Structures are given as structure tokens and as C-alpha cells.
Amino acid sequence: MIPDHPAAAPAEPVVHEIDFWRDGRTVGSWLLTKDHKRIGIMFLAGVTLALLVGGVFALILRLELLTPDRTFIGPNAFNQLFTHHGVVMIFLFMIPAIPAGFGNFFVPIMIGARDVAFPRLNLASFYVYVAGAILLLATLLIGGLDTGWTFYTPYSTTSYSTVALAVVGVFVVGVSSILTGLNFIVTIHTLRAEGVTWHRMPLFVWAIYATSIIQVLATPVLGMSVLLVGADRVLHWGLFEPALGGDPVLFQHLFWFYSHPAVYIMILPAMGVVSEVVSSFSHNPPISYRAIAYSSLGIAFIGFLTWGHHMFVSGMSVFDAGAFGILSMFVAIFSAVKVFTWTATLYRGRIAVTTPLLYFFGFTFLFVFGGMSGVALATASLDIPWHDTYFVVAHFHFIMVGGTLTGFLAALHYWFPKVTGRMYSERWGLVSSMLVTLGFFFTFMPQFLLGNAGMPRRYWSYPAHYQWMNVLSTAGASVLALGLLITFGYLTAAVLRGRRAGPNPWGSRSYEWRVPSPPPTHNFETLPRWRKGPYDYHYGNGGAGNGDDRQHA
Amino acid sequence: MNELLRQLLYLPPQASTVARGVDHFHMVVIITSVLGAVGVAAAVALFLIRYGRRREEGRGGMRAAGGRVAHVPFGLEIGVIGGLLALFVTFGVIGFRQFVHLRTPPPGAMEIYVVGKQWMWSYAYPDGSATNHDLYVPVGKPIKLLMTSRDVIHSFWVPAFRQKQDVVPGRMTTLWFEVAEPGTYEVLCAEYCGTQHSTMRGRVIALDAEAYARWSEGRAAPEQDLAAQGERRAAEVGCLRCHTVDGAPHIGPTFAGMFGSQVRLATGQRVVADAAYVTESMMDPEVKIHAGFLPVMPSYRGILQAGDTAAIVAYLRKLGEVTASQPVSPPAQGLPGVHAPAEEIP
Fold this sequence. Notes:
The structure holds 2 protein chains of 2 kinds.
Chain A: H1 27-31, H2 36-64, H3 75-110, H4 119-142, H5 155-158, H6 163-190, H7 203-234, H8 248-282, H9 289-302, H10 318-346, H11 355-378, H12 380-386, H13 390-414, H14 416-420, H15 426-453, H16 467-497, E1 528-529, E2 551-552
Antiparallel strand pairs in A: 1-2
Helix pairs in contact in A: 2-3, 2-4, 2-16, 3-4, 3-6, 3-7, 3-8, 3-13, 4-6, 6-7, 7-8, 7-9, 8-9, 8-10, 8-11, 8-13, 9-10, 10-11, 11-13, 11-15, 13-15, 15-16
Chain B: H1 2-8, H2 19-51, H3 55-59, H4 74-103, E1 110-117, E2 120-124, E3 130-132, E4 134-138, E5 143-149, E6 154-158, E7 163-167, E8 173-177, E9 183-189, E10 201-207, H5 209-218, H6 226-237, H7 239-242, E11 262-264, E12 270-272, H8 275-283, H9 306-319
Parallel strand pairs in B: 1-5, 4-10
Antiparallel strand pairs in B: 1-2, 2-3, 5-8, 6-7, 6-9, 9-10, 11-12
Helix pairs in contact in B: 6-9
């Protein structure tokens, strides 16, 4: 266990209010709560369940792929499982995981507010998410969905499966996403405490802000597009169905107009977490605050102009391919700026090697590889052989699992003491972070090579010469699953029996560590006025250590 | 070097004329990427070790702050970012030039019709014959595939040729390659198309010129050339009830002199009546209406097989050389109720 840094472990602030866990213990007090922290916890429970379900689907897929032909499930079951794996992981886990879970819990505290701007809307957003999740899981039980999470027409307009219900489910989950994003935008604009200027907000808040903009602007396009697929299917409108005069490639444009920015909905919050983690554990301010903050906005903006790179072989014009290819390079630059800034932040720091920092290390390696393979895929000529092969599968899993999942796990460990008031076991944290990172690497590295060899994605059976790489990948997936199981095991144990954490076990200067752990229901007895910013490490140990500058108005 | 890296990267044999160039660029980009990832990881690891807080220091009551007030020089920042951007954009530009080459069939390529359907490929050759699953091509001759789908989107993917193209219903897409070595190459469907997607496989069988000629002759010779077959099918399925072949306008525009000419559309645009246009007009007649004609033609999707479509296109191509005895456009006074002047089309 890394000991508390003495300088930054202050006297316990005087607690006048009981913490949010104890403030009402009935089921009703949770289900009807308007407390952003409790809603965040409920979202975290929801997304963890989704991660578990999606993970089980993934393991079944990997087991089926151990042999070139049928291993134990048939092609229809396989097609439904990869579809549900994608839908559950994307719409129910990755998109809400960090913004709706940790964002809900920490954004108000980080800007010195007592709650989000619209607490009722916040609770509504959770129930809309649950409703959407029920619809999507009902799809699985009623008839399954086998279109892939991409819903490409005209397959989705002619498939035997329960497409109409699934598109309604996706639409409903999208509404939840929009409500959360809208709430954050208004909260960040209007509820910042005195002294929390735009450039003194923690970088996590910037990341959530950029994410929220994408959620509000892009999600409606997805909602409308998938509903139009439903209309094509049920009412025979003929928008995307060529037999009725529709254009299937138009659907791909509309779909990727959302779904490419959606990648940034998933990765930007993870980048925000990493920005916090790297600063807190190197005890250094970020080497360039503005570079990290503005590159989030840059990614959000340019992310809207790159969707065509998913369609290089769709029959789109050659000129478009060139334009979308070059534009995609600019997104890579913003991401590279972030990676360099985080790395340089470690320079001459006083680095405490903890589980969140190990996840930062995993994140950096996997994300850089994922990002560079993204640059490779955006070069139009190389995309021709790679398109729709396992290379793409490996690429987006490096970004989404290597980025979003490690970011989520970093957040889970970094904020665990704040949320629960207890410490987890660093020893188990070390073991599981190694298992997760290595298991991940061996799951998806062989898939890059499978893609090079030409194996298309969404293949239930495959030519026999692809087998040994698939076996390696399945072995890696098992290690990854084991790592995640151990994580859930020791974190559960820590919730029950962990050592008391105190308000600031990491010696961080960020705002959320200036309130008690766990925070009281209203976060602050009186609204704070912070003299020092969240990264003011260079002031040393002036005053009483913990946010000594907190003054009561 | 090429062979070593090809094996290391697990790439298929380089069986087409473009494969080697694509692979070389692939190797440059991937090696740069690996170096970048390893470089960043090494920097992070170095900092973790060099600046890792030692246990005794942690207990020793030293202050928390690293206390660095460091600044990266602005010039260095701009230099690194600018350099990286220049590198990425260079990748983008080289990739785009190569992409244009991969997407542009050379003139004079041998044209073969490909139809994808759940879950098989079928091919129609210029001499009027057809095969399923196996595509026979000569080595050393550019081949242009004219592809469409009968049902959902498929994607024609030959790993050894490094060429891939979606096959879209209601549209015609093209893909070209020139096989460098005789052999048998896997065709895979790369766009998810339903239950048997992963078994929708075929083969390209590339034969040298002599063997290809033998193969061509060895099959039961089709009774007529492709254009003659097309004429027969056009009569059978009813094309000629509305389209004349002597230049006289009728319910539809005449076929005489049409192929290869510029056609004015009801929207005012002009298109060249090439193989793609006439195929689209058979499958989706209402998308591009010839100016001056009513949108009354039914779709022939599902009625015309791959071979039929190829044959009718060959027939139209032949008729394109016929000089129309009358202007191709309809006369100002159309047959009432049958076709109307362009401006009356809503």
C-alpha cells in the first residue's frame, strides 16, 4: 500500500452532514433520489452489468471461433451474439460508462456545485436508459437481432430478426444520452463556483463538456436514422431499401455521421480521467493545461468531419475518400497532442506507482497503437485490403477497450476512495491490471495479423489457415476476463472491509479531494471559493494542506 | 526484405500487379506506428522508473509536490506537432494517390459481370458463358469486374490481390485487378450479409494465356455471341415492346445510337449512357429518367439473371454503333398519354 502523502493528508474536515450513502437507506430513497452522486452510482451499477453481459457474449464468440467450423453454436446464434455484444457494449456500457457514471458523480463536485442543473432530468435520464436497456434485452429474448450493431440496410430491412424493437431501444438509449449531455452543458456553464473559471476547471470537466456537445449534436441523427430503418421495414417507406427505390449508401452516411463522433463520446471521457490520474500521481501540473483542454474541443469538432473514412469501399466517390482521409489525420493530431502532454507531465514528477497509474501506462501503450492503426486505416489505399477485416476489429478494440475500458478502470480505482470512503488492495490492483493489459494485448494483437491475412469480420466459420491466431486470441480473452473478475472481486471486498481512506489519500490537489470521502449529500455546506486551482502543485505545502484555501463565504 | 516482412506481418501472397506497392506502403506505415507506440511507452516507462517515488521518501515526510514549473518551449511544441501532422498528411496523400490507382481500371480491361446474392457469387463472361463460385481469368491481362447484388450488400474481397469493393443492390460498382501469377485465390465476402455470410466464398482461378484459351474452348461453346443472346433476351423479357432499335421514339428512348451517347435526364443533368447507366436503368429505372419520357418502366431486378444483364448490355453496346435514322429525342408532339415533353414532367 502506498502510504498517504503526509503533506497532503490533512486533518479530517469538520463534517456537519452525513455522507450520501447514509442519507436515507430505503430502496425508495435510492430510486427516487435526485442526488447526482446516487444517480451516478446507479448508472455505474447499470453499466457494470452491461459490461458483464457484453463480456459473456464476447467469450462465447471467442470460444466458437476456436475451430474453423462449428464449435458449439450455429451461424444464426453467432450472428445474434456478435450483434448483441456490439449493441450492449457500445450503447449500454461505453457511451454512458464514464460520463453518466463518473461524470455524474464528479462534475458537480469538481466545479463546486451542489448538484447538476436539472436533477429531475438527471434521474429521468437514468430511467430512460433502463427502459432502453430493457427494450434491447427484450429483443434478445423475443427473436434476437442479427444485423450487426451497424444496422446496415438493406440487410436490416429484410432480416428475419427483431429489428423494429431494437431500433426503438437504440432510440430510447439515445434520448438518455442526450439528456445527460444537455444537463452537463448547462451545469458547466451556469453552476461553476466562484473562482472556478473556465481555465481552472479540472481537465476531466473539459472532457465531459466536449463529450456532451457531441452527445447533444450527433445522437439525434442516429435516433432518426435507425427509426427510418424501422419505417422502411414496417411501413415500406423505401428510403434505404433499393427494391423500393431507396439508397443503402445514404444510410451508411447518416449512420456514421453519428457513429464516428460516438467513438469520441467513448474515448474523450477516458482521456479526461487519464488527465486527472497522470497529474495526481506524478504530483505535477499538466505540462500544458490548454493543450489538453482545447484538444478535447478540437476532437469534438473535427470528429464530425471524418465519418466517410468508414466507407472507402462502399462505392463512395474517389474524391470523397481522399477528403475524408486527410481530415481524419487532423483528429489523430489532437490525440497525439494529448499523449505527448500526459507523457511530458510525468517528467520530473514525484510519481506514486498505483493501480490507476498502471492503467494509465496500459492506456498509453494500447491507445497509441490503436491510434496509429487508425492513421493507417485512414490512408485510403491501405484501407482497401483492411476494410471489414479483423484488422479493423483489432483497431477499434485497441481504441475502445485499450482506451475506454482502461480509462474506466483507472477511474474506478482512482475515485474508489472518494466514492466509497475506503481503500482497495493495491496488491490485487497490480495483479489484475497486469492481467487485463496483457490479456487484452494477446486478445487483439493476433487480430491485427488476422486482418493482414485477410480474415473478414463477423465470420462464424473461416478458412483453416486462420486458426492458430484465433486460438491465441481466445486464450488472451480468457486472461482478460479473469483480470476483470478479480477486479470486481477485490473491489467488492474493499467496499465492505477496506481501510478508511480519508479525504485525500493520493495527495491530489484537484477539487474533488477537498470534500470528505464519501461526500455529504450536498457536497458543500457552503459553496466553496477556491483560491488555488486543481493543479497547483508548485505551491508546495502552504497552509493546511488539503485545499487550505477553502473559504466559507 | 519484402518477403521477410510479408511473412512477419502475416500478409497473403502478392498475386496481383498492385499488391507489392500496397504492401510496401503498408510496411512503412506499420513500422512507423510500432516505433511511435514503443517510443511513447518507453518514455512513460523511463519516467516511471526515473521519477518513481521511493518508498522511504514517501515515509520520510517530504512534501507532496513535484514542484516543477517546467515549460516546453513553444517552438518545440509547434515543431513536434507540425512534423507529426506533415507525416500523417503525407501518408494520407500517398495513400490517396495509390487509392486512385487501385480504383481506376486501365482502359481495355476485359469486362466480367459479377452478381452477388445470398450466399454465392456468379460471373458472366464476354463470350456469353457463365460460372458460379469460380471466376476464371487470364494472367497478365487487366480484368474489370462490373458488380451488382441481387439482395443485400456484399463485398468482393480477394486477399491475395489486395482488392476489395462493396457490391451494392441497385448500383453498379467496379473492381479491377491484373493477376501476376497463375494460381487459385480465395474470394471472401467481406460485408456481413446474413446467416451464411462466412461461407460465401469463391475462387479466382488464374490461368496463363494458353490454358485460358483451352479452358474457354473446352466448355460447351455458347450457341451465339453475347450480343445475339442479348437480342434474344431483350425480346423475351419485353424490352423491345417499348424501345425501338431503329431510332424511332416510342414509349421509351430508342436503343439505336444510345450506348455511349450523352443522355439528358428529366432533372436537366447529362449522363453518358455507359454500362453502369444502362444496368442501373434496368434495375432501378426511376432513378435517372431520360428527359421526355414518363417514368413507366418496371424494374427488372430478379427477372434478369447476371448473364442476361451482361448480354443485354453487350447488345446495347452493339446497337450504340447504329446511327439513328431519326433524332433520339422524342418529337415535340408526343403520342398523347404515352410520353410527354420534358417540361411537363413534374
